[in-house]
Amino acid sequence: MKPNFQTASRVRDVRYEIRGALARRARELEQQGNDILQLNIGNPGAFGLRTPETMRRAVVRNLKYSEAYGPQTGIFPAREAVAMQFQGRGMTETTYDQVIVGNGVSELVDLVLRSLLEPGDEVLVPAPDYPLWTAAVVLNGGKAVHYRCQAEQDFIPDVEQIRARITDRTRALVVINPNNPTGAVYPESVLQALADLAAEHDLILFSDEIYDAICFDDARFVPMAPLAENTLCVSFGGLSKVYRACGWRVGWAVFTGQLERAQDYRLAVEKLSALRLSANVPGQWAVQTALGGYQSIADLVARGGRLYESRQAVIDAVERSRFLELVTPMGAMYAFPSVRADHFPDFDDHRFAAELLEQKHILIVPGSSFNIPERNHFRITLLPEAEDLERAFEKINDLLEELADE
Ligand code: PLP
Hints:
The chain is an alpha/beta fold. The chain has helices spanning 9-12, 21-31, 53-61, 76-88, 104-114, 132-139, 159-165, 188-200, 263-275, 281-284, 287-292, 297-301, 306-320, 349-360, 386-405, and strands spanning 37-38, 99-102, 122-127, 143-148, 170-176, 204-208, 232-238, 251-257, 324-325, 334-335, 338-339, 362-363, 365-366, 378-381. The chain folds into 2 domains: 9-50 and 299-405, Aspartate Aminotransferase, domain 1; 53-292, Aspartate Aminotransferase, domain 2 (3-Layer(aba) Sandwich), CATH 3.40.640.10. It contains 15 helices and 14 strands. The strands form 4 sheets. Strands 2-8-7-6-5-3-4 form a 7-stranded mixed beta sheet, sandwiched between helices. It has a 3-stranded antiparallel beta sheet with strand order 10-14-13. The protein binds pyridoxal-5'-phosphate. Its cofactor is pyridoxal 5'-phosphate.
């Protein structure tokens, strides 16, 4: 037989296990007639959380203007709406031409890194991270240098540790706030220190803020851009999470700070965006409605709201369990529990996730998929109803009981 067709080694080196082998196995089990509780993806629509009706109407009304390609950087009303959001955040000079709209933040992450990196250039990425960032750095020839956010410090970055990882090849610093997978929401003092560090070393700050309006209790989201005027800051947001429109594939990146030094770079990003002609147009018509109108996510996040109650169910379930620990998630839509070392000194998160899927029909993501070496964590999304999460945790505990007896 002839050898296999070639696969690019740079793709082989990319890890994205949120939709990896376990998810494929879950599909097989489903095809065999099993119900699988999929806690692996933060996909609101899959859990009955609808896109606000005003946004749906905005898309439908504008469908007739959505048949042609749009401008490569996005339609004007969408860009203008994002610029106005930034004006409202104290960046009063922001104009629409600082905004680029893409097919979700995912596409823009790739565009901004592809436009930046030479082979071997380094990017500081949090660990645990949302693994798209590490994957996109690797795919674009760079090296992801991970800075650790530790459970003992509530997963808040340690600025001095980041400083120690900077080399003459470091080009950028990635910050994810509110954080996926940990649920940490960073205080302003830490964000300011990160912005100052980036400015001091001339690093581009990539601030992934896709969960900006999802903060619980007294946690408060602080945008990075106003703190980072002394470097180039690229802030990311989108319709997927806060506006529950993952399938529309609409995200944006906003360039602020030292723009006069970033003209070539921005032209490069724009050139790459031209290669894919335009982002999905229909969804862009909802951006103005989304950002300008009533923020219904607030109802879901407030005490008594769907996300709040689901989060509470997870907190309570972990508290009842003698096997589990959790840094309370203060934002985003995930929990990142760990198993206690006194019960499981050699826990294997991948094996646990595989057994949970086979035996209990629950799909989770092993913690080491988020680019940390420890194997004692797992991530679940907080999107299901509280009762479904309670039942899921009963099964998780049952399996842990069985494993503890082994
Ligand atoms: N950034 C973070 C931190 C995410 O968690 C996600 C999706 O889960 C994305 C970006 C991608 O979002 P989008 O749907 O806009 O591509």
